[in-house]
């Protein structure tokens, strides 16, 4: 699969570096084939790029500008519509190629299931991988209505793949009782409701380890991110999420990749969610890499 082809659509603000000269590759995973409630997240990556034109390239939080990061916007991975397994295989193959080339992947979803093949590829590349997961939902089901390929399963899949004790979830406020019990019995870290303070407590124990960060935009309260497929009240503020990203950026963990998923523009009439997601992508680019 080609990684360096010119992308004909909108690109994320500040993208100037070629693929060959890049350290970080920004890419989209436009898939929502398995969602359990409202579809539309496959349009998220394109809209995040489009609204990024309204951003400043300078972050006053980090005192850095986007030109200081060598990143390339590769566009969206072409995925076969309606075919979850083939789509996941294509994503994993793509990420294998990026990692083999020494690139850091920064993905935009798409539903949360797209994170599974990326994390799986990262686990092949990096020993002792840890996952930091921000979400409203546990995503620890083994199946949904009999279907094992579901956006409610990616964290269970990676936990079973690398060991539950290597997965740290924050902001969780929804899930089946059995999911919470499984996490507790198997040593997985789940912080219910809160994000920033429990994250700060965990980060020193992850110092020096390769870490992959996955953010479901619905970790935010619907007041801050209405444009998502499965809204869930009682979430954190966008200010808290930004502070959490900056806490990771200021720690001694080694972020080897990240993603932001579940932005669904069709439910985002004010474009509040897409604009928030765009700023989060900027802060991850500047803070993690």
Automatic annotation (TrEMBL):
<feature type="binding site">
    <location>
        <position position="137"/>
    </location>
    <ligand>
        <name>Mn(2+)</name>
    </ligand>
</feature>
<feature type="binding site">
    <location>
        <position position="218"/>
    </location>
    <ligand>
        <name>Mn(2+)</name>
    </ligand>
</feature>
<keyword id="KW-0661">Putrescine biosynthesis</keyword>
<keyword id="KW-0620">Polyamine biosynthesis</keyword>
<protein>
    <recommendedName>
        <fullName>Agmatinase</fullName>
        <ecNumber>3.5.3.11</ecNumber>
    </recommendedName>
</protein>
<dbReference type="GO" id="GO:0033389">
    <property type="term" value="P:putrescine biosynthetic process from arginine, via agmatine"/>
</dbReference>
<dbReference type="InterPro" id="IPR005925">
    <property type="entry name" value="Agmatinase-rel"/>
</dbReference>
<comment type="similarity">
    <text>Belongs to the arginase family. Agmatinase subfamily.</text>
</comment>
<keyword id="KW-0464">Manganese</keyword>
<keyword id="KW-0745">Spermidine biosynthesis</keyword>
<dbReference type="InterPro" id="IPR023696">
    <property type="entry name" value="Ureohydrolase_dom_sf"/>
</dbReference>
<comment type="pathway">
    <text>Amine and polyamine biosynthesis; putrescine biosynthesis via agmatine pathway; putrescine from agmatine: step 1/1.</text>
</comment>
<dbReference type="GO" id="GO:0008783">
    <property type="term" value="F:agmatinase activity"/>
</dbReference>
<dbReference type="GO" id="GO:0008295">
    <property type="term" value="P:spermidine biosynthetic process"/>
</dbReference>
<keyword id="KW-0378">Hydrolase</keyword>
<keyword id="KW-0479">Metal-binding</keyword>
<comment type="function">
    <text>Catalyzes the formation of putrescine from agmatine.</text>
</comment>
<feature type="binding site">
    <location>
        <position position="139"/>
    </location>
    <ligand>
        <name>Mn(2+)</name>
    </ligand>
</feature>
<dbReference type="InterPro" id="IPR020855">
    <property type="entry name" value="Ureohydrolase_Mn_BS"/>
</dbReference>
<dbReference type="Pfam" id="PF00491">
    <property type="entry name" value="Arginase"/>
</dbReference>
<dbReference type="InterPro" id="IPR006035">
    <property type="entry name" value="Ureohydrolase"/>
</dbReference>
<feature type="binding site">
    <location>
        <position position="112"/>
    </location>
    <ligand>
        <name>Mn(2+)</name>
    </ligand>
</feature>
<feature type="binding site">
    <location>
        <position position="135"/>
    </location>
    <ligand>
        <name>Mn(2+)</name>
    </ligand>
</feature>
<dbReference type="GO" id="GO:0046872">
    <property type="term" value="F:metal ion binding"/>
</dbReference>
<feature type="binding site">
    <location>
        <position position="216"/>
    </location>
    <ligand>
        <name>Mn(2+)</name>
    </ligand>
</feature>
């Amino acid at each position: 699969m080609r990684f360096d082809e010119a992308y004909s659509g909108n690109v994320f603000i500040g993208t100037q570096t070629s693929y060959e000269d890049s350290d970080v590759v920004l890419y989209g995973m436009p898939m929502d084939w398995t969602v359990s409630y409202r579809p539309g997240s496959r349009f998220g990556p394109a809209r995040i790029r489009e609204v990024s034109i309204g951003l400043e390239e300078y972050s006053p939080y980090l005192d850095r500008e986007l030109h200081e990061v060598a990143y390339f916007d590769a566009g969206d991975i072409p995925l076969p519509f309606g075919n979850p397994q083939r789509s996941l295989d294509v994503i994993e193959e793509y990420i294998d190629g990026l990692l083999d080339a020494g690139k850091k992947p920064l993905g935009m979803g798409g539903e949360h299931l797209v994170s599974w093949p990326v994390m799986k590829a990262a686990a092949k590349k990096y020993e002792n991988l840890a996952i930091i997961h921000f979400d409203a939902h546990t995503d620890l089901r083994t199946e949904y209505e009999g279907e094992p390929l579901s956006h409610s399963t990616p964290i269970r899949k990676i936990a079973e793949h690398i060991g539950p004790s290597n997965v740290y979830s924050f902001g969780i406020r929804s899930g089946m009782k059995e999911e919470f019990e499984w996490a507790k019995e198997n040593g997985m870290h789940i912080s219910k409701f809160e994000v920033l303070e429990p994250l700060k407590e965990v980060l020193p124990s992850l110092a020096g380890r390769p870490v992959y960060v996955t953010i479901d935009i619905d970790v935010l309260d619907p007041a801050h991110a209405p444009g998502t497929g499965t809204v869930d009240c009682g979430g954190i503020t966008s200010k808290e999420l930004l502070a959490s990203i900056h806490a990771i950026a200021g720690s001694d963990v080694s972020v080897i990749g990240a993603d932001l998923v579940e932005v669904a523009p069709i439910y985002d009439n004010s474009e509040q969610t897409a604009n928030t997601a765009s700023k989060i992508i900027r802060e991850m680019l500047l803070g993690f890499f």
